Inverse folding.
DNA sequence: GATTCACATAATAATAAGTATCAAAAAGAA
DNA sequence: TTCTTTTTGATACTTATTATTATGTGAATC
């Protein structure tokens, strides 16, 4: 955990930004809630629990910065809110999501399932792929059991 | 064209909605701009050219309704605006998009490239897929030529 | 034909996510 | 120290979208 913070610190300083206490608090919240897909508001409320004086704008700025440095991914599932998701270390590509239309849960698929598809797209559409977003909408295993 | 409007009319009446003049004007704009990915504002401005008395809220409501009936798909590319895209007739699934990070162009892939991937996800994650969203970000063929 | 009645609409107010502004504080550099 | 740059917090603002509300409309019933 500490080592991940250190590495993020290096990424920041590499781009001549500092890991200020506010930024560190924000990063810690993201690390502690890695499973979730927090909105900026969610992050703000969680950060505020430990650092009550932090401002909402600072959280937005930090998330924006982390997104530019590819530390987090900014995603939209269509509910009108941006969500911020820590990128797996070393992951070249965005991971995939399973959004349950019953309960709203969002699960992640870390595996890259798209290599074959990307090869086809690059060739057939002559498109140089840099990243992708893949989300499946359906019924998660939990809601299937409930039936 | 007229036949497509007729079929959309049937879809509406099947769900006990009417194809009012305002709704028809909105659908026509979508049909005439099928290649584009219009925002609600875009649609509103285009509809207004022919039906100056239409209200923005009506356009929003119509787009929302068409989305619920799966006539259009509501998509977000991350620029803060929802865009509305006519679904190909008979298409069970959402089509895919190629978003160029240089020029912003959005191209479409109508083919379903995900059958194999979906089979894996359904089995391995025990997730019953209803729909999917797949967007590639990269450099389109036009911008590659410009180099 | 007049009268209901449910649905649609236009106008506009309200909401909420996100951004811009700006003065003050913090952190370096000199 | 003093000067300069970066960062921050508070808050005003913007903008997409939604809610409200009074009005309109067209089919169904009297």
């Amino acid at each position: 955990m500490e080592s991940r913070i250190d590495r993020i610190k290096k990424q920041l300083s590499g781009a001549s930004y500092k890991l200020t206490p506010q930024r560190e608090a924000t990063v810690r919240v993201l690390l502690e809630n890695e499973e979730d897909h927090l909105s900026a508001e969610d992050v703000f409320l969680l950060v505020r629990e430990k650092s009550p004086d932090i401002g909402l704008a600072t959280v937005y700025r930090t998330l924006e910065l982390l997104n530019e440095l590819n530390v987090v991914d900014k995603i939209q599932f269509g509910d009108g809110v941006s969500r911020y998701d820590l990128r797996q270390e070393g992951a070249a590509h965005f991971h995939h999501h399973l959004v349950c239309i019953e309960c709203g849960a969002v699960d992640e698929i870390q595996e890259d399932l798209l290599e074959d598809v990307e090869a086809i797209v690059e060739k057939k559409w002559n498109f140089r792929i840099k990243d992708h977003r893949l989300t499946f909408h359906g019924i998660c295993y939990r809601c299937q059991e409930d039936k």
Remarks:
- Helices of chain A lie at 2-14, 21-32, 40-50, 56-68, 115-124, 141-146.
